[in-house]
Amino acid sequence: MGPLAALPTPPGVYTPQHDTDLIARVMEKEHLDADSCVLDLCTGSGALAVRAAARGARVTAVDISRRALATAWCNALLAGQRITVRRGDLVSAVPGRRYDLVVSNPPYVPAPAPRPPSRGSARAWDAGPDGRLFVDRICDTSAGVLKRGGVLLLVHSALCGTAPTLDRLNAAGLDATVVDRATVPFGPVLRERRSWLHSRGMLRDRHEDQEELVVVRAVRR
């Protein structure tokens, strides 16, 4: 398949970027075949869902945004793949289902507003003052949709704190480790929020211009 960033994404849908590429690279190491069931939470453009489907897996893509789900479905069609799309709030969209692999590139950018926006482009990245509104919920609920021995792959910025992610996943019944990292330049949103991030102690230097991305792999016990 071609570069993930080449997938068509309309305004308001997250365009695949460094974080998408990083988790996609890790996902390539997971065993997937026609018997594998994959759940893509916060699918956005459908980049990860389409990649998993291309390897033969049965894929369900979940997002709260109708526009994102339409984009994911169209991108799968353009790639000659079939995915199932479900609109809903994270795992509540797939009650009673169990998966071999759950992947997620959720909103994780720290934002001054206490709650994430309900519309607009920022809905794809804003995640509350500590950036953990969605990350924490995925950590707390993913075990409930994983088969025993199933794997969660989760990508987010180290600005959110990596240790809290590992701690929450371990407490929820998963064995979690960081399996990949990348240092990337700030995008326009983080550049605009540098002073605010520094005032909250999330940046050591108000002129900092790079962030570390981490991919966490967690196996259900």
TrEMBL record:
Q: Which UniProt keywords apply?
A: Methyltransferase, S-adenosyl-L-methionine, Transferase
Q: Name one GO molecular function term.
A: S-adenosylmethionine-dependent methyltransferase activity
Q: Where is the Methyltransferase small domain?
A: 19-108
Q: Which domain of life is it from?
A: Bacteria
Q: Name one GO biological process term.
A: methylation
* Any single GO CC term annotated in Swiss-Prot or TrEMBL for this entry: eRF1 methyltransferase complex
Which PANTHER family does the record match to this protein?
METHYLTRANSFERASE N6AMT1
Q: Which family does it belong to?
A: Belongs to the eukaryotic/archaeal PrmC-related family.
In its UniProt entry, what is this protein called?
A: Methyltransferase domain-containing protein
In the record, what lineage is assigned to the organism producing the protein?
A: Bacteria, Bacillati, Actinomycetota, Actinomycetes, Kitasatosporales
